[in-house]
Hints:
Layout: H1 9-20, E1 39-43, E2 46-49, E3 54-57, H2 60-63, H3 72-82, H4 93-105, E4 111-115, H5 118-133, E5 137-141, H6 150-153, E6 164-165, E7 168-169, H7 180-184, E8 186-189, H8 194-202, E9 208-213, H9 227-239, E10 243-247, E11 269-273, E12 283-287, H10 289-292, H11 314-326, H12 329-353, E13 358-362, E14 365-369, H13 378-381, H14 385-400, E15 403-404, E16 410-412, H15 419-436
Parallel strand pairs: 3-15, 5-8, 5-9, 9-10, 10-11
Antiparallel strand pairs: 1-2, 2-3, 4-12, 6-7, 11-12, 13-14, 14-16
Amino acid sequence: MSVNHETNKEQALYERACHVLPGGVSRNIIYRKPHPRYIARAQGCYVEDLYGVKRIDFVNNIASLVHGHAHPAIVAAVYEQMQKGTAMAIGTEAEIRHAEHFIARVPGFEKIRFVNSGTEAVMALIRTARAYTGKYKIAKAEGAYHGSYDFAEVSQSAGPSNWGELDSPNSVAHTLNTPPSVLSDVVVFPYNDVDRTLAILDRHAGEIACVLIDPVPQRIGMMRATSEFVEAVYHWTRKNNTLMAFDEVVCFRVDYEGAQAAYQVKPDLTSLGKIIGGGFPVGALAGKTEIMEVMNPSHSPLPFPLSGTFSANPISMTAGRVAMELFDREAVEKVNALAAVAKKQLTEAALQAGIPLCLTGDGSMFKMHFKEQPPRHYRENVDNDTMKKAVSTFLEFMYDEGVILVYSNGCFMNTVMGQTEIDKLSDAALKGFRHIRPLLNL
């Protein structure tokens, strides 16, 4: 049956896309059946589709737009810089100003190197740790997402059929035909489980270059790493000539100084991305001067050569600096407080609808679980088919109600939201909770 291009603009676009893009998309996250959704424009905390329908955007390009879409101050700064040039193979002051902001902002940041994405930041982190320690294995939590990189992807999608025993999780490939050598160089541990993690790390004590932790990991369930867990890993790394690394590409937003502000001990290296680009592609690696020196090109031989055609381009640097300056302590506290109100109203809506609900997360980001107790680790966050159906149905219902949620059933707040948007969220959620109640087999 032919598509009426006047009445189904999205289907028409998707048909065109399928002729030139694998699966019709460049980002798998937007794929859906029968076709992806398409946005015509976005402003503030609202997006408008091809039919002129506006919806509240709680996704904010997967946590990267902490000030929403097309923030006037960022747009003005970028427009001014665009007229001076967008990218050049010569340095600009924009990079230095952005770096100075971070070094002043976060006590543990002594030097910083900018790249083009969160994935690149983690890649640089791993390679920096190897160059500095002289070791090559990394350790990461089962289920944690750290970008699209062979080593970082290991066990991010492990399941009951292949994940092995919790005392010794398997290193499971995420991409078909990942080299076995990659799997053997990644040590997998259960998140927030001190005893099991230390026992696993001990078995590889002389080989691990860094232990990589996302302190508020979305894919694992968005539970914060406990102080006990972080401190145990930190002290283990001190004893074993290993670096403790944080991946704060997503969760840096939870506090003015990042998620690491909550802990007494600090990571040696931190990967950044998302909000630090002000809506443009960006990534960064920050850490102690001694460690970051492995990238210093004045050294010969250079332990870790790192370049990138668009790294530290003045557009991303300018937009990012303005965004971070706007995201001052007052702005952080305000958006975090708004998220707390949202969680309270959602909890009340779930009680009214008669469904179980618990919320995890921190600061301006949270995730909804349709169960009585939050997951303790990745394996408890893997939903069965019944729960997957309930979540997908809820997300579709919310979209139709004018509210766009994160695919994992959560929200990333932005600073231009207010009580009006939170009320719309909880009102729509109450209807959505009632809609999916029969699917939860209550």
